[in-house]
Amino acid sequence: MRTVIGIDLGGTNARVAKVTEDGQILQVVSAPSHALEGTEKVMDNLKALIRQIKGLDEVIGIGIGVPGPVDTVRGVMTMATNLPGFENYPMAQEIEREFNKPTYVDNDANVAGLAEALVGAGKGYKIVYYMTHSTGVGGALVVDGKVVSGKNGYAGEVGNIIVTSEGEKINHLNVGAAENVFSGTALVKLAQKELDPKITSAKAIFDLAQEGNEKAIKMIDDMAYHFALLCSAIGHVVDPHVFVIGGGVAKSHAFYFDKILSNYNNLVHVGMRNPLFKRAELSEPGIVGAAMLPISHGK
Amino acid sequence: MRTVIGIDLGGTNARVAKVTEDGQILQVVSAPSHALEGTEKVMDNLKALIRQIKGLDEVIGIGIGVPGPVDTVRGVMTMATNLPGFENYPMAQEIEREFNKPTYVDNDANVAGLAEALVGAGKGYKIVYYMTHSTGVGGALVVDGKVVSGKNGYAGEVGNIIVTSEGEKINHLNVGAAENVFSGTALVKLAQKELDPKITSAKAIFDLAQEGNEKAIKMIDDMAYHFALLCSAIGHVVDPHVFVIGGGVAKSHAFYFDKILSNYNNLVHVGMRNPLFKRAELSEPGIVGAAMLPISHGK
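^ inputs. structure came back:
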């Protein structure tokens, strides 16, 4: 079976893996990414990690997931908050020259979505919408096994879609943006105010709801409504065959995926009702999805 | 140059054209569609029109645009309000058998979007988002020259996306749905209340604004804001290279496209600012776009 290099380059760590085309991880090496020490150091470190992969000659290509929007045609990040200096840096080109393998870059949410679409919960479906429900809210559109990354790499930045006219300006996002309404961070903040100042995780809210706490139940109902509102906007744009939802909060899927679906059905045309809402399946979507980039480009 | 048959099958008329692969119309024949007289009559009528096309043997395929959502894999309408009996009717299959040409069906907004993407204002751009601003509000996503039609054919039904929490339940759409807020119909209704009960067209509102009528100016400002809000939702999902806007209201583009853009820029991430907003270019997007269906499928 063909093999590919998948790289998860974050602000803290760099992880490089050899992955089969059906998503099995054969080897992983990792090291700190040295993000604050300049692009040369980061790239030298990455190349050294790649050289540690056994049977490097056989791999058919290299994929890199990075934390920020990417111009996938040029293979460069268009914003690089967590990797200073990498805005417009020809990362793909440099790795491609060094190893003489076709190399692709995309952002971490997109590669996670690609992994789920090709070898995870979305496998076999034509249009997969992947969402992360975690400290933030993000997404990725995969059509016919290819990520739709967008002109500036911002396709999937659905956390900035407005889902309520209420709320305050919190960060660089819109007032009432999905991420500020129902991300893990937003839920904890609200729970500290409404339920208990000691709450530090979304899971604690689900636990209280399970115990019958009415305020916690109401919080989850509201979250599911706003989550469904975001999904309905996505649905009217791309009408996916399946929504695949990953991220830490989604571990509690049993408490709210059904609620998202029932709200969704009330917010879309009759013929759009009952799409699949599935929990993400992969434990390592970052490196597996990066490895899928060359595959999805037909290499 | 290769030629294709493009068909615009509406509830009132059926139009059949021979079109070159670069979008030039060589011949058009038309007749009432007999939509209320049953599927057999409609199909017989359509076949008779197709037989009137000169040089039918040479055409490489047939495309049909219909008024309603389509399952493009099966080539059937999934809802057929204006063509009774055609829900799940194997239209593409029947035409394909009769004429022995590859035949594709998609809804009218999607084929118009495809026309603009391949041979109109969106030509040369990777991701085109086409919108109609007319009696209704609709859209279509074209990626790499192919329509993304969706699981149930509802991709592009953006008129149902919620853009305000205000408003009343008017029809089958959501309260605060884009179409009920800023379609031509919605604008006229509001203008009759706010400006002059005799107003019957969106153009009259633009005329009043040009004369300095402050209420009319405010209406256009509000419309542009809500239009931008819808575009920002679409932008965060697919980050298109260009928005192409067609439809009757868009004839007055000089009065509001700039306003959409300035609002859009305030509703998206900095790196997403200033996408192209272009007016649709084609005078016959329906039949040209239908003809582009076999082309976009690589036939």
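The interface with chain B takes residues 69, 73, 78-79, 126-127, 139, 141, 143, 148-158, 160-162, 164-165, 172, 174, 229, 232-241, 267-272, 275 of chain A (CB under 8 Å). Chain A has a mean pLDDT of 95.
thumbs up if we can close this ticket
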